[in-house]
Design brief:
- The protein is 40% helix and 16% strand.
- It is α/β, with parallel strands linked by helices.
- It folds into two domains: 152 residues, SPOUT methyltransferase, trefoil knot domain (Alpha/beta knot, 3-Layer(aba) Sandwich), CATH 3.40.1280; 73 residues, tRNA(m1g37)methyltransferase, domain 2 (Trp Operon Repressor, Chain A).
- The strands form three sheets. The protein has a five-stranded parallel sheet.
- Helix 4 links the parallel strand 5 and strand 6.
- Helix 2 crosses helix 6 and helix 3 runs parallel beside helix 5.
- The protein is elongated, with a radius of gyration of 23 Å.
- Bound molecules: ligand 9D3.
């Protein structure tokens, strides 16, 4: 997948490919990330790409033309059908389903806004989809674009560990993850749950599923409402709830 980021902070966005999964994806040639700076398309001596908002108000607005030229240059490289996304607080909420859908694209163009916002005529003319991280205020779209790159990188075929991570994601089952334990067996007086030490893999799988269901029920009941639990899952969740009420805790 080829990802072209339109940003006033190319060094910031490129830094996401210097570690972790995005780096692995780039090294294995599963992903390429390139940045285009709209400032390079400003046609004034000061390379200015913002101006005051019509109607007044605080802050500045990113002008349409430098962004349009940057997007058109990116499209010339990636193909005219390449989807143009904009990271924006007005966008649809990004979730694992979006990552899965976007990971199937051959290329993406991602516009990062700065200042108070982007001239709406550019959005209307050139942006196919707006995506948000959630209901909080960032100072620009760059960190959101880096989140997008990270979430997509680990789903790309050919990226080491892709098969496990893509399929085993608790979010691909719609549940939170179960708890994890490693050595030592006793850490500062806390033991590892006995079931994980017994070697009965079927029992361990049931325990993990039960913990995942229980934690989702406790912490994110909204996620359970969108799921149809099968008979085994319903039994495990009922057991978890019963144990919870006995005061068993974790
Ligand atoms: C104080 C400015 N806000 C007025 C209430 C409007 C505003 C403008 C620009 C808020 C945020 C931004 C910059 N944010 C993004 O570009 C952004 C973002 C975010 O702020 N939150 C969650 N997801 C995203 S994706 C892009």
């Amino acid at each position: 997948m080829r990802i072209e980021i339109i940003t006033l902070f190319p060094e910031l966005v490129e830094s996401v490919t210097r570690s972790g999964m995005p780096r692995v994806a780039v090294e294995q040639d599963a992903m390429a990330v390139h940045c285009t700076n709209p400032r390079d398309f400003a046609r004034n001596r000061w390379r200015k790409v913002d101006d005051r908002p019509f109607g007044g108000g605080p802050g500045m607005v990113m002008q349409a033309e430098p962004l349009a030229l940057a997007i058109e240059t990116a499209k010339a490289g990636l193909g005219p059908a390449t989807k143009v996304l904009m990271m924006s607080p007005q966008g649809e909420r990004l979730d694992q389903q979006w990552f899965q859908r976007l990971s199937l694209e051959a290329g993406l163009i991602v516009v990062c806004g700065r200042y108070e916002g982007v001239d709406e005529r550019l959005v209307k003319a050139a942006v196919d989809l707006e995506l948000s991280l959630g209901d909080f205020v960032l100072s620009g779209g760059e960190l959101a674009a880096m989140v997008l790159i990270d979430g997509i990188a680990r789903l790309l075929p050919g990226v080491l560990g892709h098969a496990e991570s893509a399929g085993q994601d608790s979010f691909s089952k719609g549940l939170l993850d179960h708890p994890h334990y490693s050595r030592p067996v006793d850490w500062r007086g806390q033991a590892v749950p006995e079931v994980l030490m017994c070697g009965d893999h079927a029992r361990q799988a049931r325990w993990r599923l039960k913990q995942a269901l229980g934690r989702t029920w406790l912490r994110r009941p909204d996620l359970l409402e969108n799921l149809e639990l099968d008979a085994e899952q319903q039994t495990l969740l009922r057991e978890f709830v019963a144990e919870q009420k006995e005061g068993g805790g974790s």
